Amino acid sequence: MACAAIKRHDAGATRLFRILISESAFLVWRLRNERVINKEIPTSARAIHNRWLKLINNRLGLDRAMTNEHKYGKKAVKKNLVLKTWRKVLKNEDDLPKDWTRETEVLVGIG
């Protein structure tokens, strides 16, 4: 919950930081529950990495969907904020259109 208190000069960077911290903490919590409550064997580092990427890509998809002003009206997230949030972390970002919020093949890239 403390990640919401972090503020930076760049609204997009602040929002990305909050997303990454909160989603990562959620994954750690789920992994711990799987190990302690469900008595599951710890997964490999590669499997955890893939789960984290899927989680972040799902969040990117949610952000893209929430920019739909026809569906969400005044509650829609501003496209400009979403574009600023995910700037410099997308896979093949240079090949994407300027407004990629309606594109289907947008992924977070880890290099």
Which structural traits does this protein have?
single chain, 111 residues, mainly alpha, 0% strand
State the end-to-end CA separation: 29 Å
Strand proportion, as a percent range, falls in under 5%
Give the uncertain stretches in residue-range form: none
**Class by SSE composition:** mainly alpha
The averaged pLDDT comes out at 88
Overall number of structural domains: 1
Radius of gyration: 16 Å
Specify the overall morphology: globular
Order of helices and strands: HHHH
Give a short account of the largest sheet.
Answer: none
Count of β-strands: 0
Query: Which range best describes the helical content: under 10%, 10-25%, 25-40%, 40-55%, 55-70% or over 70%?
Result: 40-55%
Number of helical stretches of at least 4 residues: 4
Structural notes for this entry:
- This protein is mostly helical and 111 residues long.
- It has one domain (2-95).
- It is 52% helix and 0% strand.
- The chain has four helices and no strands.
- The protein has helices at residues 11-36, 45-65, 69-72, 79-85.
- Helix 1 (11-36) crosses helix 2 and helix 1 (11-36) packs across helix 4.
- The radius of gyration is 16 Å and the shape is globular.
- It starts with 10 loop residues before the first helix and ends in a 26-residue tail after the last helix.
List the topology elements:
Elements: H1 11-36, H2 45-65, H3 69-72, H4 79-85
Helix pairs in contact: 1-2, 1-4
